[in-house]
Amino acid sequence: MKKIGNYFKDFGQAIAHGDIWVKLSLIIMGAGYFGRKQIMRGILMTLLQVGVLASIFGVFAPYMSKLNTLGTVQREEIFDIVTMKKTVNNYDNSLLILLYGIIGILVIIAFIALYIGNIKATYRLQKMQENGEKLNTFVDDIVSFKNERFHITLLTLPSLGVILINIIPILFMVCIAFTNYDENHQPPTYLFTWVGIKNFVNLFTTSQTITFGYAFVRVLIWTLIWAVLATATTFLGGILLAQFINHEDTKFKGMWRTLFVITIGIPQFVTLLLISKMFGDNGIVNTFCSNVGILDFFKNIGLLNAADSFIPFLSRPGWAHVTIILVNIWVGIPYQMLVATGILMNIPSDQIESAKIDGANKFQIFWKITMPYVLFITGPSLIQSVIANINNFNVIYLLTYNYKTTNMAMANSHANEVDLLITWLFRLTNEYSNFKMASVIGIVTFVVCAALSLLTFSRMIGGDKEGVYR
Amino acid sequence: MKKKLVSALLVSTMAVSAFVGCGAAAEETPAADSTETTEETAEASTEDAIANLIAATEGTVNIDLWCSETEEYQTVMKKLCDDFAAQYPDVDFNITLGAVSEADMKDRVLEDVEAAADVFIFPDDQLEALVKAGALNEVAAQYTYDMNETDTPATVEAAQYDGKQYGYPFTASNGYFLYYDKNQLSDEDVASWEALTAKAEELGKEVGCETANGWYLYGFFKGAGCNLTENEDQSNNCDWNNETGLAAAEALQEIASSKAYKSYGNDDLLANLNDGKVVAYVSGTWNVNAFSEAYGDGYAATKLPTFKVNGEDKQMASYSGYKFVGVNAYAENTGWSMLLAEYLTNATSQEAVYEATGEGPSNTEALAKASSPALDALAAQSEFAELQRVGGNYWTPAESLGKNILEGKVSQQVLDDAVAGITQPVE
User: Fold this and answer.
1) In the structure, how many helices (H) and strands (E) does chain B have?
2) Which of the residues A331, B168, B240, B413 has an alpha carbon 20 to 30 A from that of A373?
3) In Gene Ontology terms, what is a biological process of this protein (chain B) (predicted)?
């Protein structure tokens, strides 16, 4: 709060105590520089001002003025059957209004910040002149971007990128969640408009016809279970595998490693599609299982009904969940093995040596020294891979794109038992054009991910964990 | 001839004559005269319109055309587009062919309507979604033929929505029927599902229908006498949870419990067909080559079988399927795109498409020349086939209902939930 207060106090002081050039730059932003003979800088600043103002009034203002309704004029066309030409009215495009409206607001905010900063800068220049300090020439300014202000040079591009590909789309998506953008309101032909928090209410509503609440809870639970299990299994498996390969008695270490790395070499897309075909209800694995009697074995131990003619590896809840996790282990372990190999090679050998001298056996060494060390090193990347698994579209979608649910309540909101939030979102947008609910789900996913990473990161990295381990 | 154009002009003439009628009743005769003259000018003006268009066209006319990715389609479309361009030697065309699977056409077009193809070929079940998104140009007038005279009324009507014509009828064979191997199955065997499954069990072979798919599932419930209709706001009316519906679901469950009955998706169907396991299956003209190759001289097709509901034989119904050529409402050259769409759907083009792909024409003249077991089967099924008009909320619940039937989980509760999902209100 104090910082914000100071920010505006400085601004007020600059205006109050500034000389004529500072006051002039309230209107012409370059004036403060012209007064100090910084002609080039003045011209650039004025050009920037003109450019930004022109774009605000010329490009963004028409859209921004319609932001409150997201457009009122629907597209209408008249086809002239004699000239075979079509005339179209000047219609509103809700999507563009929303997009340009958001960009416009961002531009205005940035411009205000620039404006305030500019007044302060010119006031600083005035003070420097009064104190008889040397004022930078244009060449000095350019040079400073290579030296003391090098960080600005470096960070400009990345921060522009973050704004363009992160902030604007996120704001856009958040806004969509408060509109009725669905298959009946698709721009450019039709308009959509604000509906308040209705979509959020729907997501947490369960009735016979609106089952989003029912489906959401189940999808969220499976998403979290999946993320944790998928991460934990591949992580443990990867370390164990690396440990086995690193073992002193293992021969042909290079060959084993290469063999496992080859699975990475084949694109996941191909492997997963193949696996989903192989494990399908009529796939090759099922044919094999019924030929060698595994199908009957499952029936005898009660895992399947007597009437089943195939093993529903990927087509029944429970079965599908287990298969997905197992397949993911197979797909994911080689990556973790590579990571773990690097870490295992760097474990300080003195600790292991001294443990051996103290009489610790191999399991004790693994659980008390190797695991804590690996966990400490890979902690942040583990959290990151939990997040990545929450959004692991590939594995789930490619394995279960044929999955059909028997749960009517799930089906009524276009979800199924093996959906992650992200695959559900994909189906809603891609097949049902239900962008409003997809945005709501997107926001919820974002909140889950953000909360999870904030919580775990602050626990893991915060405090003096480093000291404790050492 | 050129009825649309004529009627449009007639409306304006009638407006004029109405004023005339107000003035004096005696002047009725001249009003009628003027109608006649308009009709003549109308005929002339279709050619004028094209001539005007040619005159008004400058530079290259770019038209994107999206159609099925199959080789047959791509080849025949390429040829037809070249022929179209050759018709207008004064105009420089640049027609680009794009390969988009027909099942995905709607999704691809709606990704970005303004960037999508100017002309595209789509199945009738996507018409509604495309109209709802405002992606289709209304066929306000026709210039080279009149579909009301040249095409079967059912196909023309299928391409209408809210009384407006949105598509040019292209093929009329996108429905489903029963393929079977006549070397292994007799006419009596394919007459009913009960006989069919019994015979297949005896042979140790497979028969079936993709039950966990709303498109096919509809046939059983409709055949039993249940209804599914669409309201104006795109929600559905559905009575599948009444007594008849429950009986139909149980009957279907009984049929599906047979070891021989399979519900394959298209990929699994083709794989098992090639293995020689499948002796009869419900499918459509898109698989005509696969079935004729697999069955050889035993290749045959017929209407869908009957099934027993409450002890009574009921004929399984079906959705009739059509393909249309649509013009994008945001097309760059609406006039030329409409002319291309007309060209692609005229009698000669439809004949060429039939010869290349085996799909049945919607044009009566072309249809008369076309004959194959598949088309005959479709014709036999046609009296039990319904035009597909159903809201988007139907598909997922229906798919789930089909899956419940396959797994033997039919109950009043399941049907109630399915109907609740199918009929859920649309905001």
Assistant:
1) 18, 18
2) A331
3) maltose transport
Taking CA atoms, what residue in A is nearest to B142? A81
Distance CA B132, CA B228 (A): 20
Tell me the ipTM for this assembly: 0.78
Please say if the pLDDT value at position A331 is more than 90: no
State whether residue B234 sits within 8 Å of chain A by CB: yes
Interface test with B, best of A282, A315, A430, A432 (most B CBs within 10 A): A282
Q: Is residue B279 a contact partner of residue B207, using CB atoms and an 8 Å limit?
A: yes
* Cβ-defined contact of A409 to B417 (cutoff 8 Å): yes
CB contact under 8 A, B129 and A85: no
Q: Residue B1 — very low, low, confident or very high, per pLDDT cuts 50/70/90?
A: very low
Residues of chain A in contact with residue B414, where contact means CB-CB under 8 angstroms, are 408
Angle formed by the axes of helices A212-246 and A421-430, to 10°?
Answer: 130
Residues A148-191 pLDDT 10s: 888 888 888 999 898 888 889 889 999 999 999 988 888 888 99
Residue B202, Cα to own-chain centre: how many angstroms?
Answer: 37
Provide the mean pLDDT of chain A.
87
Instruction: Identify the CATH assignment for B60-166+323-361 out of 3.40.190.10, 2.60.40.290, 3.60.21.10, 1.10.10.60.
Output: 3.40.190.10
- Domain A201-279+314-469 class? mainly alpha
CB pairs < 8 Å spanning A and B: 126
- Which token pair is B26? 């005696």
A405 has a chain B CB within 8 A of its CB: yes
Site from B400, B410, B416, B422 to mutate, A interface, most A CB atoms within 10 angstroms = B400
Looking at residue A83, its pLDDT comes to 81
- What is the percent of chain B with per-residue pLDDT over 90, rounded to a whole number? 58
CB distance B427 to B403 below 8 Å:
no
Chain B nearest CA to A330, separation (Å):
25
Q: Where are the domains of chain B?
A: 1-56, 60-166+323-361, 177-320+376-422
Q: Do the Cβ atoms of B381 and B219 come closer than 8 Å?
A: no
Asked if A291 has any chain B CB less than 8 Å from its own CB, the reply is: no
Q: Please indicate if any CB of chain B lies within 8 Å of the CB of A432.
A: yes
| Environment class of A460 (CB within 10 Å of its CB; exposed 0-12, middle 13-18, buried 19+) | middle
| Domain map (residue ranges) of chain A | 2-196, 201-279+314-469
A202 to chain B, any CB pair closer than 8 A? The answer is no
A369 — contact with chain B (CB < 8 Å)?
A: no
B137 and chain A: CB distance < 8 Å anywhere? yes
Q: Assign domain B177-320+376-422 to its CATH superfamily.
A: Periplasmic binding protein-like II (3.40.190.10)
